[in-house]
């Protein structure tokens, strides 16, 4: 290995969107200041490390994707360690510490990390440092920062013990000399998703990897008169504090403009492992009335001439571009408006201090500048603290410079969460708020993540409509606010809405294929199969579906498929089906009024609907939300789940619906079993484990 074996540790990361890699790179950068060297690799690069023979401590940073799955880059690794023929002492020699990343908005929080952690333990590996579980819902840094702070002492102790075992006394003396007197005290970390109990204190300058920004080293502007902090200014104590800010990330990208012409790469080259399909949009229908609070669209794609295959309940991804006006605006701010169509060559900067620096896989070696900003970089991404730190160096105004330092500092953690993270601020918002900040193109390529394809649930059945794929979505709106000068639409939903505008037939909510319009518009898609969210394999098993708003989308596919199965197999026994649907107004956003067709032909046994914003003159108030209707049918819910071993599907918003539905089911089970709530929660957990309580949710 390239590292000094006396103080080396192996650093592995498994990332889906780049966050785990960024954190691993931060650990790598800090290691040198602690007299350690990290041998860093993506966990998929199994030819570059070998855990079977690894003697040094191992640090693993791993994210979670999908419904609790390890990231794509960890699939082969997880498959390898889950080999049931491996003996229980297979990794008895291994010492490791693991940092899991997740989002408690979703079920199976940090399950990617938990899966690897649990399996390593089963195979005899030992923790040299407690596992950290960071929650993106409230801010990864609340766990990540203190976890990294405590890592160095734990690593040195692990290396010390390792060398003692090997009888290398000379190395023991060397490592001991770098330890504090408290080195042999037992240090315990209790890092979990319950970050609200974690309090970060101002500890001053704590280690050499942190740049301590003294008040007398910077030019402060006059204090703002406002007593409330905002994105662009602070108040005491932050405005008067010495700041602990991250070390400046090393530059590693060089962009060269070229005079030659050519063609941009095909979009399929942007997707590393998937097969992409360019398919025409054959139909677009607006499902909501013009005065509805949200605009819901149904799109139909022609997949007949492809090998794209799907089941009802599956998802697929749409490759989308950034908004053309935002790209032009960014080019203008960068002073590159005249060079958007020029070809550039992206290379690793010679002499960079970044370990293992390489051109990001999502950036073509040669393309136009506009192509990179349109199809490759997530310009709407919420800037990470490392990016803010780098932007400090591109800012000329002293006051603006100080505020950016505050926002990336430990002392400004609360401001960062409130004014950047929770406000969904993007690079353009920052550049408007801090006009003296003029970053280079190479800096953007270094710090902006890959523009991710957007995932949507399939809302059709290939059995019902061969060669057609439908999906439903709300056009996402981000209103203007204190940190965002203009309103914006979702990157993908806004693009799709603009793309299909000529095809739209407002308020036509037909489910058949009549009234198609010819279209030359095409979009690029690739499959994202769902391993669990499918109809029961036994058609006689009853099931219940809960899908308010666009959460109804996959259930349309379920019902279409079920209808065809009934038509083709008249001798089969089919279990009863329930659908609980809710929306705001019956006359504005009842997305599929033709659900009654399924009811009339027997495909759907029970349809229960509610309208949360419609006024009622009835003496007994009508249920407002789907969880309220569920409680009205408590006995039926308990019967289907407990006595008839049925299935329960939930699709839609996680925060404001799925959790409430879960709570309602717990209450129902508790009441019908005449047991306590804890017992009901255990039953629900067992249903989840048996994949009979299934969720397809988003935040």
From TrEMBL:
Signal peptide: none annotated. GO terms for molecular function: [methionine synthase] reductase (NADPH) activity; flavin adenine dinucleotide binding; FMN binding. Its cofactor is FAD; FMN. It is found in: Cytoplasm. Forms a multiprotein complex with MMACHC, MMADHC and MTR. Residues 274-536 form the FAD-binding FR-type domain. One of its GO terms (biological process) is folic acid metabolic process. GO terms for cellular component: cytosol. Its EC number is 1.16.1.8. It catalyses: 2 cob(II)alamin + A + 2 H2O + 2 H(+) = 2 aquacob(III)alamin + AH2. This is Methionine synthase reductase. Gene3D superfamilies: 3.40.50.360, NADPH-cytochrome p450 Reductase, Chain A, domain 3, Nucleotide-binding domain of ferredoxin-NADP reductase (FNR) module, Translation factors. The lineage of its organism: Eukaryota, Metazoa, Chordata, Craniata, Vertebrata. Keywords: Amino-acid biosynthesis, Cytoplasm, FAD, Flavoprotein, FMN, Methionine biosynthesis, NADP, Oxidoreductase, Phosphoprotein, S-adenosyl-L-methionine. It comes from Menura novaehollandiae (superb lyrebird). Residues 9-152 form the Flavodoxin-like domain. The gene is Mtrr.
